[in-house]
Amino acid sequence: MKFFRLDSSLHVDGSVSRALADVVQKEWSRTHPAAAFIRRDLGRHPLPSVWPAAVAGRITPEDARTDEQRSAGALAARLVDELLESDAYIFAVPMYNFGVPQQVKHWIDLIITDPRADDVNRPLLPGRPAVLVEARGGGYGPGSDREGWDHVTPYLSHILADVWGLDLAITAAELTVADANPAMAHLRGLARQRIADAHAAASDHAISIAKRLRTAA
Questions:
Q1: Could you tell me the end-to-end alpha-carbon distance of the chain, in angstroms, rounded to an integer?
Q2: Which residues have CB under 8 Å from 126's CB, separation 6+?
Q3: DSSP letter at 131?
Q4: Hey, which of 137, 166, 189, 190 would disulfide with 130, CB 3.0 to 4.6 Å?
Q5: How far apart are CA 116 and CA 73, in angstroms?
Q6: What is the mean pLDDT of the chain?
Q7: Three-state SS across 14-74?
Q8: pTM
Q9: Cβ within 8 Å of residue 50, ≥6 positions away
Q10: Predicted local distance difference test score (pLDDT) of residue 129
Q11: Cα of 38 vs its chain's centroid, Å
């Protein structure tokens, strides 16, 4: 069995999204100690900016492709292989400027250039379980001043679940910059509770998926 983990935070120490992903990984490692993890850390190791070459390579005959186009296509294929080789998935994504980090968008765009992943009517990973953990510096829930400003969850839900076909569970920690932002000092107690709730939800999702995989095996 193999698990796939994607990290995308630019921070390592103190990263809330990485800590939430750790919760899921630890549970899966505990219940499936022989399983391997495929790691893709876009925060520390972003992909090269080859998406234009990958797109151009798709519409260029094989014998006319440049070395750059072939290299970009090979990278896209490797990214798809990592997903296809895995049985369950962790995606750890912080919100940056109300949307997904650019390195996550680039990863998705490159994957979709591969012929195996370019058909929205043919899911790449139908029915496979996944956990999406998110971190948001502010509050974006119902009734908040910025309700509707979260462009991470809707976009990733459409890609991961609707297009790729994953059976997706989602948890998010909000108000994650309250401790560092004096203007949010009055929200620090609530922020600690929101983060604790997100950790509990991540653990619940991990346990549920681990049981499902154990039963399937």
A1: 9
A2: 165
A3: E
A4: 166
A5: 12
A6: 96
A7: CCHHHHHHHHHHHHHHHHCCCCEEEEEECCCCCCCCCHHHHHHHHCCCHHHCCHHHHHHHH
A8: 0.95
A9: 68, 71, 72, 75, 110
A10: 98
A11: 13
